[in-house]
Design a protein that fits this description.
Helix content is about 25%, strand content about 35%. By secondary structure, it is of the alpha+beta class. It has one domain. A hairpin with a 6-residue loop joins strand 2 and strand 3. It starts with a helix and ends with a strand.
Amino acid sequence: MRALGLILIVFLFGNMTCEEAGIDAPACVKTLIKTDPQPLEVWRYRFENQTVYYVLNDCCDQFNSVYDTNCTLICHPSGGITGGGDGNCPEFHNTVKDGVLVWKKD
């Protein structure tokens, strides 16, 4: 009986939309979460005195992106062929604050 309850909980929460799960993120980030392939994780940070969303991709040689709250791409601090991103925000990982995991792929 306990296993059945656990299965039901996993099924219900695993099939929630971003809005149902209470994800606090801009529309573009919610859209990215629904794409195929999904990102691995989405984090909210404070960077250069603004709230940003760091979207980590799931696989190989893809840039990891930072968006502001208006869904404007700021930079790619990591990922790509070299793993070093696009070079437009090399200070990102050393200066971000208040990291909150917004979403994680199952």
